[in-house]
Amino acid sequence: MAWVYLIVAGLLEVVWAYSMKQSAGFTKLVPSLITLGTMGVSFALLSLAMKSLPLGTAYTVWTGIGAVGAFIVGVIWLNEGVHPVRVAAAGLILAGLTLMRLAPST
């Protein structure tokens, strides 16, 4: 169940990053409230995942999902530029996440 919590927490990190962008520096109420709400739930789920997953694994996977997810959201919904180097960087993050998941926790 810890991995489910962690994945959902990472996806919520993407939501709060996007809504933070939409809040225009916390000057728009609804995106600001979405940011704060999803941030709180994301941290809570990360905390639950950390009860049984190693700190380094949980935090790395959480931030990696957030980073790659925010990159994808930026490209698709915010028309941010796609450059081969940025795509390669996102691919390397995904490779790191995969290795982190496969690594023994000893």
Summarize this structure as a short list of keywords or feature phrases.
mainly alpha, flat, 79% helix, 106 residues, 0% strand
Can you walk through the features of this model?
The protein starts with a helix and ends with a helix. The chain has one domain. The protein has 106 residues and is mainly α. The chain has four helices and no strands.
Structural Rg: 15 Å
User: Rough shape?
Assistant: flat
Uncertain runs: none
Query: What is the SS-derived class?
Result: mainly alpha
How many separate domains make up the residues?
A: 1
**Tally of individual helices:** 4
Termini gap: 20 Å
Average of pLDDT:
94
Report the helical percentage.
over 70%
Strand segment count: 0
Largest sheet: none
Order of helices and strands: HHHH
Strand content: under 5%
SSE layout and pairing:
Layout: H1 2-22, H2 29-49, H3 55-77, H4 84-102
Helix pairs in contact: 1-2, 1-3, 3-4
Short note summarizing the structure:
Helices cover 79% and strands 0% of the residues.
